[in-house]
Amino acid sequence: MIHTADQLLRGGACLLLALLAALVLRDHGRVAAAWLGSLFAAGTAAFALCSAPGIHALLAWWSAPILAGASGNNLVFWLFARALFDDGFRPRLWHAVLWLAIVAAGVIEVVMLEPIFSSAAAPLGLALTAQTVLFALLGGVQAVATWRGDVVEARRRLRLFLVGATAIYIVVTAGTGFPRTGPGSGAGSLVQIAVLTLILLAVAAALLRVSGEAGPFPEPALAARRRDFAEPAATAPDPALVAALERAMTVDRAYRQEGLSIGQLALRLRLPEYRLRQLINQGLGYRNFAAFLNSYRIADAKSALADPAQAEVPILTIALDAGFNSLGPFNRAFKAETGVTPGEFRRLRPPAAVPVRRFPESASRISNPA
To answer: Alpha helix (H) ranges present in 108-223?
Structure first.
């Protein structure tokens, strides 16, 4: 009876994972986070298969693709968390190389070392278990570290649950020693797959709840930048509050305050933080607070760099005046926004063309369209 229930739950979990992956790709197929999320779903399905009681006695070379998906899934989980919660993140070649190394280690241990040299497989097994916990923790840290500056309410609601629940499950399953021995048969295995199924059902319900509003996935070519139109909202932001926020940024230049946080800006505007997040996201179209601040700071710096009267002013001074804490973050943010370094921008800018200081377009055309 227990064995039958275990098989049914594993089959149901795999079908649900396939459905979630298909829905995410259908709605967000051009987004890196969606592809990584789908890969993570496939890897989780592979784990559900590979961790079934008695399955390890049947594994051979032909099972390498399934083992590969399960062994490297923890790295995919970390990359998924980064892509989902960091709009500026892009997967790199070294991520793929690291994934291949973990996959190769997992397949070699289960298919080659475990059946023949079980003692030689122990150190490799310990390393694979350690990376499981490491990447689970890294994914959780990513969710917590960037939570405060996230102004997309749908993503704020999803992040701690989605990553927290999945990270807990990965850490728990690491105790089974996968992919070395798999969980024991009986009630323990049934409880494990039941927990996974409950988490998947909760994730599916959460995704359905946010399907009609501003979703958690950043749009391509718009990540870390404002959108042309604000995200749809159940209640439109108050135009007077949007105007007050714009005055604080363009007239008072609040962005120049060192270490300005969303809490400090909310206190300055005498608003609750959640109202300020709504104004920034749904009124001005930004997805995170850092991108919101940097857009004003970069506009300020571009104006200074193009001003012949400031041609001798060091770039570091311009960066500090604009509100950046140091030159490194300024250079990276400037190049991400303009495609060139601040020094290149100053050299390429025609000396005669000194524009009036321009700040990012406001949401006035959103709240008061022509």
So the answer is: 114-116, 118-145, 153-174, 187-209
